[in-house]
Amino acid sequence: TKDDSIEPLSTLRYELNKNGTLEIKGTKKEDSGSYACWAANSVGKRAITANLDVRDATKVVVTPKNPRVLKSHSVLLKCQSDYDSHLKHSFKLSWRKDGDELPLNSTEDGRIILDRDTLFISSVTLEDQGVYMCVARTSLDRAVAESQLIVLDVPDPPEDLQLSDNQNRSVRLSWKAGANHNSPVSESIIEFEENRWEPGRWQELTRAAGNDSTALLSLAPYVNYQFRVVSVNGVGRSQPSKPSLRYATPPAAPDKNPENIRVEASEPNEMVMKWEPLKPVERNGPGLEYKVSWRQRGVEADWNEEMVKKHSLTLRNTPTFVPYEIKVQAVNTLGSGPEPNVTIGYSGEDIPDAAPSGVSVDVVNSTLVKVFWFGIPRDRVRGHLRGYKVSWWKTKSMLDGKRHHPEKHLLTFVGDRNYGMIPGLEPFSEFRLTVLAYNGKGDGPESSPVVFETPEGVPEQPHFLKILNFDKDSVTLSWGLPRKANGHLTGFILQYQIINETHEVGPVNDISITNHSTLSWRLSGLSSSTKYKFYVKACTVKGCGKPVTEEGLTMAQGSKGTRKISGAVKPTQKFHPSEALEPGTDYTVRLVTKNWVDNNSIFEDVIETRGRAYAGIYDGISTQGWFIGLMCAIALLTLLLLTICFVRRNKGGKYSVKEKEDLHPDPEAQSIKDEIFGEYSDSDEKPLKGSLQSLNGDIKATGSADSLVDYGEGEHGMFNEDGSFIGAYSGSKEKGSVESTGSSTATFPLHA
Q1: pLDDT of residue 669
Q2: Measured between alpha carbons, how far is 234 from 216 in angstroms, rounded to an integer?
Q3: What does DSSP assign to residue 582?
Q4: By three-state DSSP, how is residue 416 classified?
Q5: Cβ-contact 691, 740 below 8 angstroms
Q6: Pairwise CA distance, residues 620 & 679, whole Å
Q7: pLDDT value, residue 481
Q8: What are phi and psi of 294, to 5 degrees?
Q9: Which of 94, 303, 347, 697 could form a disulfide with 271 if both were Cys (CB 3.0 to 4.6 A apart)?
Q10: Which residues pair with 290 in a beta bridge?
């Protein structure tokens, strides 16, 4: 019975033997338990018990299974094991190679390393090939897993080279293949070396299939051969075999003639014939020479012949660019090669002696024209026609009539053609154009110049766009003429739209300015505290060009506007503003060069005038009676003191006021002197608050909207000729752009 059951064991898995033993077939984990064997007679029954523990069988797997590894590479074998946890104290792993146990410590200077369940082999050699077993043991069972390591390498070199079937032009070569090292031989390479022309240089002769061990070799005459064989498998090439015995073939007449026959000439009245010489193994015998034959094509004449040893022949005094029939044949002491083929070549070229005729120009648009011409006759090319070259240059501008220094431009059209397109021309200009033919020798004469004019085009964008005066609902813009008008300007298109910090933008409003001399415009009806983008485009009868843009923010409700006071300043002038300034008000002072066209100022700062209370002190004090009396008393006392000092000095002769003053100067008196006689200036030497950032680049902070037009002359004339307000403050700053990060009274940001 089993465990607490009283029923006898009766399934087919249990077998009760006559000797009293119980056999359990196909043991399972659930067979564990207590078994009782009962014996009974008429008197009673007795039992004996035995406890059975069933454990999981130990399992091992080696990975990778049967790896194929290149010689000198590395391999890592890992033994993965699974055993019953009750047997962990008795579990042991070991490695064997071809049945012999490997020691646990590393071997061969660390090339083979054992670390419990891993086996690492670096720089694998052919001797490492074999069957590796991982053996797992417990107190109850033993498990084994194996993996065969296959080492791959290039084949061993072939051996035992033999020559047979000797003929004048052939011989049979046989060999024994070396070990393929687990990668079958795919082919065999037969190489040869000859000791007459290039001794020591091995060259490939032919190839044989990988399973062949013999080959019939085709040979050239007059060569002393020796051979060797190289085997090739999936890993690479073997080392060459040892060379065979030498085999010399008898001489014979050449089997082929030179190839790549061509004519090269650098002078008009000569012809240089060249060809590729025969290789040494193609000579077939001693005394190699070349028989060169030539005659003028289309002329009934005998062939001219000459024997040469080098691979070129030069003929002189030939007609210019005439076709010739040419043959080159190889000859040695045993005979001549086969009949050579005829090659056509031309004698030396000369530059063309005629210019294209009938040159005409078809204007496509303001920057593109199409040129036509009649090609020169074939006999006037005097060489191989390479193509035509078109040259053109601008002679004057149709806008101002100014003549231009000729700057030639060139465009090449390859091949035999009679037209070409000339792009990139300047609109509204007069040009001259010529055409010439060219060949391998050089350029021919130019055709007579053809004069053509390009029509008006659209102008370039205006040179600049600046924001001048601005208010809460208006702004004044100023712009410059385009650098290239490309025609007569008909006016400008002024556009603007709202671009507040949102993804949505307002509609574009257009203003057409028909007076081309108008270079400023005042926009009104704008929204306050709103960011706008302005566009100005210049126009001709052909249309309008690209716009120049500027962005700005109008002032908020209740903000003060701005006024401009400006004038021309000479380098040494000082200037006081002609208009009265407001007390307690910030003013931006800027000094710029005449005809200012960029964003750089020489000097720029913010000046704050004194307040009314401060000014009132000086306005009222000079009219007070007590102040006048005090000043008179001080004057009388001073005069009295001076008189006393003068008298005492004349009497004593030893007391000198001046010497005493020189020896002991009074700092306070010196200060009073400087204050009385010093030059008056409203500017403060220390940096003033709110200095405006230089207009060099984008101005992110709120800044003055003054631009170059504010201070320019000419069409924007806002300078006076009687001096400049800016000049009064220029002495305290060094020349150059002034940058500061303070705020200013202006609230309109400018973006370059």
Answers
A1: 41
A2: 25
A3: P
A4: coil
A5: yes
A6: 24
A7: 94
A8: -155, 155
A9: 347
A10: 308, 330
Q: Phi and psi of 128, rounded to 5°?
A: -75, -10
CA distance 665 to 653: 21
709 close to 466: Cβ distance less than 8 angstroms: yes
User: By the 8 A CB rule, do 533 and 485 touch?
Assistant: no
Residue 427, preceding peptide bond in cis (omega within 30° of 0): no
Under 8 Å CB-to-CB from 282, ≥6 apart: which residues?
220, 254, 255, 256
Q: What is the pLDDT of residue 686?
A: 36
Report the distance separating Cα 405 and Cα 690, nearest Å.
Answer: 52
DSSP 8-state secondary structure symbol assigned to residue 86: G
Contact 272, 264 (CB under 8 A): yes
- CA distance linking residue 279 with residue 256, whole number of Å: 11
Domains of the chain, CATH where assigned:
14-52 (no CATH), 59-152 (2.60.40.10), 159-249 (2.60.40.10), 262-346 (2.60.40.10), 360-454 (2.60.40.10), 462-554 (2.60.40.10)
Instruction: Give me the DSSP letters along 381-415.
Output: H-S-EEEEEEEEEEEEETTT--B-----EEEEEES
DSSP symbol at 184: -
pLDDT value of residue 606: 61
Determine the Cα angle at 440 with ends 438 and 443, to 5°: 30
Q: Tell me what pLDDT residue 400 has.
A: 84
Give the position of tokens 């083929």: 341
Q: Under 8 Å CB-to-CB from 79, ≥6 apart: which residues?
A: 60, 61, 62, 93, 95, 117, 118, 119, 134, 136, 145
Note whether 120 and 74 are within 8 A (CB). yes
What's the order of all strands across the beta sheet hosting 142-152? Answer: 68-70, 142-152, 130-137, 92-97, 100-101
Q: CA-CA distance, 196 to 577, in Å (whole number)?
A: 106
Longest CA–CA separation in the chain, Å: 176
CA angle (334, 338, 339) in 5-degree steps: 125
Instruction: List, for residues 607-621, the tens digit of each pLDDT value.
Output: 767 655 444 444 455
**Residue 434: its H or E element:** strand 429-439
CA distance 37 to 388: 119
pLDDT less than 70: residues of the chain: 104-109, 501-503, 557-588, 590-606, 608, 610-624, 651-752
Q: Sign of the C-alpha dihedral, residues 160, 163, 165, 169?
A: positive
Whole-angstrom Cα distance, residue 505 to residue 535? 14
Tell me, what DSSP letter sits at residue 80?
Answer: E
Q: Give the angle 130-132-133 at the CA atoms, nearest 5°.
A: 145
- What SS3 class is residue 197? coil
Q: Measure the CA–CA gap between 496 and 533, rounded to whole angstroms.
A: 5
Give SS3 for 436.
Answer: strand
End-to-end CA distance of the chain: 105
Give the phi and the psi of residue 223 in degrees, each rounded to 5: -135, 135
* Per-residue confidence (pLDDT) for residue 671, from 0 to 100: 43
- pLDDT value, residue 26: 85
Round to whole Å and give the CA distance between 177 and 183.
Answer: 13
Of 498, 551, 548, the C-alpha closest to 528 is 498
Residue 94 sits at the vertex; the CA angle it makes with 90 and 95, to the nearest 5 degrees, is 165
| DSSP H helical ranges for 567-693 | 612-621, 625-652, 657-663, 667-677
Say how far apart CA 535 and CA 525 lie, in whole Å: 17
> Bridge-partner residues for 402, per DSSP?
none
The tokens describing 308, both together, are 């040469």
Each residue of 254-284: pLDDT tens digit? Answer: 999 999 999 987 788 889 999 999 998 899 9
Q: Are 199 and 227 in contact (CB under 8 A)?
A: no
H/E stretch holding 591 reads strand 586-591
Q: Can you read off the two tokens belonging to residue 489?
A: 């300007």
